[in-house]
Amino acid sequence: MQNCQIQISLLRPMRRNRIDSISYYDKNSKDFHDRTINADMQELYQKILKHLPKQARILDAGCGVGRDSKFLLSKGYDVVSFDGSLEMVKMASNHLGKNVLHMLFQDINFSNEFDAIWANASLLHTPYKNLRGVLRGFHKALLPSGILFASFKYGTSMRQVEDRSFFDMDEASIEPYLRGLFQPLEIWKSADTRSKVAPSPDKSWLNFIARRLENDECVL
């Protein structure tokens, strides 16, 4: 497949977590691809598809190797993908045959552009102190009543595993971050069958689908 141009955000220098999770993915992109590219995501896909309008415009936030973007594109959706790891961006760009943005969550500067944001297993590296700000950016990027899907390793604490920082969530701990920005539609716990590395303490995921609150309902 012909290599595609990679767009790189130069909004500000790349910021790093306490442990440099981005460097982990840059160094281990091939292994991560091999472990995740064929994961069965159909249950998650079906949960969000029922909330999407036809020809929805979707932001794949932290797209990794592009597996989920490829599925969404195959369903006829208009998908914009980005990742913080340059090596992942290169891999996803080739996998999708289209441009993939190289940027961080904190650099999102879209306004009322997307029907949905798909943040599958990506926000889990965002420090707790930064998460509310990232969600504000997501809120701004979504159209009125837009949908957000996200997933975290299940738990209540920060962990450091194999050169990555994980900021785990459960049903109670996610609620304050969403309050005033998003109305939860569904929050559920699922078995951690997707990851053989750095599983949560009880080997589960915390997943949620939430709807963007309108500006007159928001507490920013």
Task: Please describe what this structure looks like.
This protein is of the alpha/beta class and 220 residues long. The protein has one domain (53-217): Vaccinia Virus protein VP39 (Rossmann fold), CATH 3.40.50. The chain has 7 helices and 10 strands. Strand 7 (158-161) and strand 8 (164-167) form a beta hairpin. The longest helix has 14 residues, at 128-141. The protein is globular and about 45 Å long. The relative contact order is 0.17. Residues 1-19 have low confidence and may be disordered.
SSE blueprint and pairings:
Layout: E1 7-8, H1 21-27, H2 29-36, H3 42-49, E2 57-61, H4 67-74, E3 78-83, H5 86-96, E4 101-102, E5 114-119, H6 128-141, E6 142-153, E7 158-161, E8 164-167, H7 171-178, E9 182-191, E10 204-212
